[in-house]
Amino acid sequence: MKPENHIGEKHGRLTIKDWKREGQYIYFLCECQCGTKRWFRGDGVLNGKTKSCGCSRRKGLTGKKYGMLKAVKRSDRKYRNGCMWICECKCGNTIEVSESDLERERKTHCGCQKETNLEQAAQQARAKNQEKNMREGTSLARIKSKKVPSNSTTGVRGVYYNAKRGYWYAQIKFKGKGKHLGIFKTKEEAAKARKAAEELYFNPIIEKYSKPE
Q1: Cβ distance 96 to 87 under 8 Å?
Q2: DSSP calls for the chain
Q3: Residues 6+ apart with CB under 8 A from 140
Q4: Could you count the other beta carbons within 10 Å of the beta carbon of residue 85?
Q5: Which domains does the chain have, with CATH numbers?
Q6: Which residues form the AP2/ERF domain (predicted)?
Q7: How many Cβ atoms sit within 10 Å of the Cβ of residue 32?
Q8: pLDDT by residue, tens only, the chain of 213 residues
């Protein structure tokens, strides 16, 4: 029978829509009951070896886990010659992933791990930078900085105001330990005490490690 005479025939879940010849083989363009259209070798379709686009086998993906993803159900959306799957990620997100990406484990999470990895990399970079700047248990970058913390209510580093008791006080942190510098009647006095403490504690170590090796 001529290949064109098979157009319209149904074999399993496949309906033949068109045909072509490539080399010594005949190929049929078939539409599966699931809606997928693909080219198959004609002999496989006619002898019954090829009965579907593979969707019958795909039903087995439901409930399967691929890394952090769990296949829930097949999506109505198609991807190239295959299908998409609605998947739940362990983080709670729901995404659509192509069947090929799932089975080949090219996609194992919704993208949340990328964000986590970026944050971990940032934390490691900050820790490495901090370690690089540590001298005798003190961060050189921190004690050299003149920047006032964003949460400061006085505008002066290490100076605070106790509104309940109506006094100012100053403190300084050096080598991981906090040092109380006293209680003062004015902000200026507290700031002066803080500056004197910086000269006493910070300046020697800054000068020591600022010298060329």
Answers
A1: yes
A2: --GGGGTT-EETTEEEEEEEEETTEEEEEEEETTS-EEEEEHHHHHTTS--SSSHHHHGGGTT-EETTEEEEEEEEEEETTEEEEEEEETTS-EEEEEHHHHHTTS--SSSHHHHHHHHHHHHHHHHHHHHHTEETTEEHHHHH--PPPTT-SSSSTTEEEETTTTEEEEEEEETTEEEEEEEESSHHHHHHHHHHHIIIIIHHHHHHHHS--
A3: 133, 134, 205, 206, 209
A4: 28
A5: 3-53 (no CATH), 59-113 (no CATH), 136-210 (3.30.730.10)
A6: 155-212
A7: 20
A8: 788 999 999 998 899 999 999 989 999 999 887 777 889 999 999 998 888 877 666 556 888 898 889 999 888 776 665 678 899 999 889 999 888 788 788 888 888 877 566 666 667 766 665 655 676 667 777 778 788 887 888 899 999 999 888 999 999 988 878 899 999 999 999 999 999 999 998 888 888 877 654
- Residue with tokens 């540590």, as numbered in its chain: 134
